Amino acid sequence: MAGLGQASRALQELRLLGLHGDEAQPVLSGDGTMRFELSGRRTVVTGASQGLGASLVAELRARGADVTPVSRGDEWEPADFDCLFLNASFGLLQSSASSLGEDVREMFEVNVLRTIEQAHTALAAGASHVHVVGSNQSIVAAPASALYSATKHAVRGWAYGSARELPGRVSISYPGGIATNFFRNLRGDPAMLDDYLSRVAEASSNYDSPEGVAQGIVDGVYYCAREIIPTRFALDWFERNGEDVSRMWHPGLEQPSREEWDWWTLVRSHALTSSPQAAKGGATSDRVAGSPATA
Questions:
Q1: What are the φ/ψ torsions at residue 130 (nearest 5 degrees)?
Q2: pLDDT in tens, 83-103
Q3: Disulfide-capable partner of 53 in 48, 83, 250, 291 (CB 3.0 to 4.6 Å)?
């Protein structure tokens, strides 16, 4: 009975992903893995005025996506877009032994609540994919930025749970240090900011370029990964901190993590025989499928 339940869920996911339509996406490639083509898709990028957001706009346009950049104060409707790259956020430095101010409420509103609200609206309207830009602090919290880390842990919890519920339709990335104005736009305690920014200035020569991070994020979405480490710099940071990255996609991999790959195998093995790809002789896999519920 468990197999029938998984098959039913697999069929539901195929329909949600459009795999029973004439323009099936994601696409089963010749090597048996999945690809998500962005060309021609109505795509929105938030936080797009500068830095990583602007680089995401450029990278997506280079891949053929029909991109609308959105900045703070712009009016837009999430349900109007097929793909969303939710990048808008800001950071704050504050001791955990200090009183909370209004900046904290605004940060949770922007970084968490607004992001999740936009994602839910789009997915309910049938969007093909929502990508959330997280942070290395979605995984490892840092001193003096526990509140910012809490916002990034929150969106990771939402994105990872949603990605397991809706395979192929939700993903999140974990960039590390990026050479942008993000740090200069930090809010918080002035003394903490001065000390922090001086240390950032010393380390920033090793930071990733926003263009490189954007390329890694879009590559990860293309390979249908649910968790994306966009650059080698970010991957090295996680490994130095002893984090398990085995479930995560990173540059150099041409398929999702094993967990995600096994879920796609399950979906195909139960349901793809009735899809247009199978009718045209699409590839199948002899790998043993694993249940995503074991993650």
A1: -125, 125
A2: 999 999 888 887 778 878 888
A3: 48
At residue 22, the 3 state secondary structure works out as coil
Q: Locate 278 and state its tokens.
A: 């199978």
Cβ atoms of residues 155 and 110 within 8 Å = no
- Long-range CB pairs of 239-245 (<8 Å, 24+ gap) are 241/140, 243/139, 243/140
Cα–Cα distances in angstroms (integers) from residue 152 to residues 2, 82, 119, 282, in the given order:
35, 24, 15, 39
- Name the amino acid, one letter, at 168: G
CA distances from 291 to 136, 180, 260 (A): 27, 40, 10
Whether the model clears a pTM of 0.85, i.e. scores above it, the answer is no
Q: Identify whether the C-beta of residue 249 lies closer than 8 Å to the C-beta of residue 218.
A: no
Q: What is the pLDDT of residues 211-266, one digit of tens each?
A: 999 999 999 999 989 999 999 888 988 898 898 888 898 887 766 655 555 555 55
Q: Determine contact, residues 275/264, Cβ cutoff 8 Å.
A: no
